[in-house]
């Protein structure tokens, strides 16, 4: 049963974040109709109740359900992680640094040298994803994998003052589209911490270079 639910969750993530238009699903504010979704070949073995169960039990709160205000039919959406353009997704702008005292991105040691040189990239997604705290802290349910080895803390005040846009999703993930190239450059890194095998702060060479130039 657990494997069945994991397969359903992965299928929902793909359709709602990336594949809705390819499958001919109409999307409004990120929502699609559950009854239309269940007509797709890959969802025919699932039921509405199984979808409700996956949404309720997902520990990262990846999905949201609602009744369509016009038709009263059940709808579902992914809360973030989209590569497709989604109009009017429920993202709350962050305009005051005090609204997000901690903004951090989790990554891995093998990625750090490139990130240190280029900054953080949204890659194929619409946004760079951040968490409002370390995994396991109160209120932190998504935004990074718990297996991440390096935490990049963002200087939100500086990034906001330089015109970068930040948003909070319905499941408390902090999102930033980056610059025109989709990057948040390294000068907006406040500090960087390695968490595994033990915690310590990494010296960021570009801050030294900037301060001595």
From TrEMBL:
Keywords: NAD, Transferase
Catalyzed reaction equations: 2'-phospho-[ligated tRNA] + NAD(+) = mature tRNA + ADP-alpha-D-ribose 1'',2''-cyclic phosphate + nicotinamide
Biological processes, Gene Ontology terms: tRNA splicing, via endonucleolytic cleavage and ligation
Role of this protein: Catalyzes the last step of tRNA splicing, the transfer of the splice junction 2'-phosphate from ligated tRNA to NAD to produce ADP-ribose 1''-2'' cyclic phosphate.
SUPFAM superfamilies in alphabetical order: ADP-ribosylation
Top-level EC class as recorded in UniProt: transferase
Name this polypeptide is given: 2'-phosphotransferase
Keyword Magnesium: no
EC number per UniProt: 2.7.1.160
Keyword NAD listed: yes
Superkingdom of origin: Eukaryota
Entry's Gene Ontology molecular function annotations: tRNA 2'-phosphotransferase activity
Record Pfam families: PTS_2-RNA (PF01885)
Family the entry assigns: Belongs to the KptA/TPT1 family.
